[in-house]
Amino acid sequence: MPRIRMPGADTTFRALRHRNYRLLWLGQTGHSATLWMDQVARAVLILQLTDSAVMLSLVIATRLAPILIFGLIAGAVADRYDKKRILTSTQFVSTGCHLFIGIVTVAGLVEVWHVFLTAAVAGTAMAFNQPVRQSLIPRTVPPEDLLNAVALNSTALSFMRIGGGALAGALLIVLDVGGVYLVTAAIYVLVIITTLLMRFDNDGTVRRRSQGGIAADLAEGFRYIAGQPVLFVVTGLSLILFVFGFPYQQVFVPLLATRVLDLGDSGVGFLAGATGVGAFAGSLFVAWKSNIARPGLQLMINMLIFGAALVAISLQETVVLTALLLAVAGSMTVTYMAFTNGILLSNSDPEMHGRVMSLLSLDRGLIPLGAILAGFLVQALGVRPGLFALGAAIIAMSALVLLLFGPRLAAISSSGATRGHHTAPQSPAAAEPPHPTDAPPLQPGQQHRSL
Q1: Domains of the chain by range and CATH?
Q2: CA-to-CA distance for 299 and 301, rounded, in angstroms?
Q3: What is the spatial distance between Cα 238 and Cα 300, in angstroms, rounded to a whole number?
Q4: 8 Å CB contact between 394 and 244
Q5: pTM of the model
Q6: If we measure between CA atoms, which residue out of 417, 144, 394 comes closest to residue 294?
Q7: For 39-87, what is each residue's pLDDT tens digit?
């Protein structure tokens, strides 16, 4: 009997043909589930303990501040040491954090400082986890599947905005916050297993260590990035999204659910899931159509639509329209990040991937600044006016950037997706063992593409 095949499925999901990528993707799915469940549970827990928007924003800042502090070091570590071992270690630390906060909450012993301490430790683990996970993607697929793999990685994250947020919301109906954290700890155990099952030549490490140590690696990374206009411009533009955009999810979604729409604690998960619906659709679109001619220009179009969605959300009074607009906002952010990651990875040398992606993580580390700003806006103006102010600021800044740098952004082409990414040997099974272990390092500047 002939097998029924969905049109476009081979194109949309082609990166999953590769075993190491499948395992990495499954690990990303579980990891993303715990991140979104943690985001819902931690917001509910701190609001239960303090009922303060400022405390909520400070917890978010504590969770993300380690990315700013350790982001660049994490990228150098990712390029220098055993990636698989680093990834596994961060997952063990995260498991311990979730297990601890779950136990003390179930036992009725949880205090505010517990929430902040585990946020800081888990954030430190995430600071090292993200550059390693992102820089492993090119090691698991051939170059022609890179952008598809990046998009499917975003799909896992986006799907878990729905699944993770909705699961946390559903669990909060029958369990307390501590029970949710015990579930996330169990999921992390499965994530660790998928990581241990991956097999790489040199565990994904593609460069020889410099004699100068981490400091020399960092200096080399700064010199490299400063000489690449594409990397410099794209990471700089991401500041708009990280500082002014992402607080809509961490700060405003919980407050919209609990204070404005009166949906209760489980409503936080519902609204988080609504953003995930749009994010999932957006990431699938990128995976299917990964050859958009002008991805740089598309970044700013996404930001303009995103800002408009936030303004519209601030003016809505119904749950349905709020959820629909959150889906639009989620779609814009995830496609923005998918194109950004694809541009950075495809326009940089493989031995620099960890440090390049850590530069983006450094931008992400500024989210606490935006979270704190959002918290004080809520205190000063209220939930809806504060969200309106952030959306309007994003529209204004994006329009200004498009006016000043439009031609340069338009010059970034998706044709670079397979250039600057040809680590030997390259074949559909390039990431699978066996491999030579003593291939010479690539020459500086051999395979990057600049404006």
Answers
A1: 17-418 (1.20.1250.20)
A2: 6
A3: 10
A4: yes
A5: 0.60
A6: 417
A7: 888 888 988 898 887 888 888 888 877 877 776 677 777 777 778 888 8
